Amino acid sequence: MSTRHFLTDLDLTNEELLKVLNLADYLKVNPYALKALQGPQTAAVIFDKTSTRTRFSFATGIAALGGQPIIVNPGESQLGHKESVADTARVLEKQVSLIIWRTYAQAGLKEMAQYSRVPVINALSDDYHPCQLLADLQTVREHFAAQGNAELTGRSLAYLGDAANNMANSYLLAGVNAGMDVRIAGPQGYLPAEEIVQAAQQRAALTGGSVTITTDPQTALKNADVVATDTWISMGQEDEKAQRMELFSDYQVNSAALALAAPGAIVLHCLPAYRGAEITAEVIDGPQSVIWDEAENRLHAQKALMAWLLVESGRADEQTVA
Ligand code: CP
Ligand code: NVA
C-alpha cells in the first residue's frame, strides 16, 4: 500500500473529496468517534510561517483522534537551515505518524513527501492552501444543504482579489474538483499561472466543472452562489502593502459587489482579514457571511483528512474511521 499525501487540491479525486467531506460532516456531529491516532501516536505540525487557525485546528484535531501534536514554530528545528528536507523526512517518518507542514516553496513539500513513508499534509504553501478548501467546501455544502440542496456540482463560486496567490489557486483547483463553476477575477499580472489554469481545465473536464479567468469582477460575480476573497497582502508580502492596496482596490467584496451575486449568496474568507481592504466589515459581519462556520470547519475537515490519509496509507485500521 503506498503512502497518500495531500500537497495540492488535486491530490484527491472528486470521489475521494466527497468521502472526506462526508467524514468531516460525521465528525462535526461525533467529534471523538474516530481514533485513527490512538496510542497516542504523534503528528509533527511544522510552521515556517505564522498561524492561528491552522495551528489550533490541527492540534485539537490530532488530540481528538487520540494522538499528540508536536508543534514546531518558525526557526525552532534544524529544518531549512542546518538540515535538508530529505534528511528531515527520513528522521521524522520514524517518529511520527503524520507530517503537517506550513512552508514557502511547494517544492519543499514535494521533497518531504518523496522521502516520507508517513502522509505529508500541506498546511499552506506559497502556491496552495488545500486544507482551507476542504473546510470551505464543507461550509458551502452545509449551508446549501440546510436549504435543500447540498450538491456542489454546478454551483458557482466567484473569487475576487489577489488571484495569483495560494487561496486563488486552491479555490480554482478544489472548486473544479468538486464540479463547480469557478470564476477567478483579479488585475492583469495577478491571475493564476497558465499551468494551474490548464490543470484546472483538465480536472473540470472530468467533473463537469468550469473555469473563468477574468480581470472584470462583475463578470465573476454575476449570479454567483458563493463569493470568496482573501487578503491582498499574503505572508511575506508586507513590504508591498501600499502598492497592493491600490492594485486590488476594484476587487473589494462589499455590499455593492455582493448585490451582483445570486440572492442568498454566501461569503467566504479564510481569515485573517483586513477589514476595509479586501472585504468590508459590513460584509464580514453581515447575514450572508459564513466565515465563522468556515473557520470552525477547519477542525472537522482536517480530522477527516488525517483519518482518511492514515487508512488509505495502511497506517490506521478502517474500523477506527468507519
Ligand atoms: N486561514 C488560515 O490558515 O489561518 P491561519 O493563518 O491563522 O492558520
Ligand atoms: N494568502 C494568505 C492566506 C493566509 C491563510 C497568506 O498566504 O498569507
From TrEMBL:
SUPFAM superfamilies (UniProt xref): Aspartate/ornithine carbamoyltransferase (SSF53671)
Pathway: Amino-acid biosynthesis; L-arginine biosynthesis; L-arginine from L-ornithine and carbamoyl phosphate: step 1/3
Residues holding carbamoyl phosphate: S51, T52, R53, T54, Q78, R102, H129, P130, C131, Q132, C270, L271, R298
Pfam families linked to this entry: OTCace (PF00185), OTCace_N (PF02729)
Annotated compartments: Cytoplasm
Protein name per UniProt: Ornithine carbamoyltransferase
EC number of the protein: 2.1.3.3
Lineage: superkingdom: Bacteria
